[in-house]
Amino acid sequence: MKVVVADKGPQTVPCDGVPASRRVEKAPAQLPIDITPATGATGMVAWRIVSLPT
Q: What is the mean pLDDT of the chain?
């Protein structure tokens, strides 16, 4: 699938159960996330959003 977080360039994420991460600096109050599935992909997506100290 392709993931776009906060209007940054798309990141391709393999659908093989391997975790992927994306750092977002100066995130807006509402963080837009757009997902485009790959053809024939099945399964689910989960998010874990963590706020780190600056």
A: 75
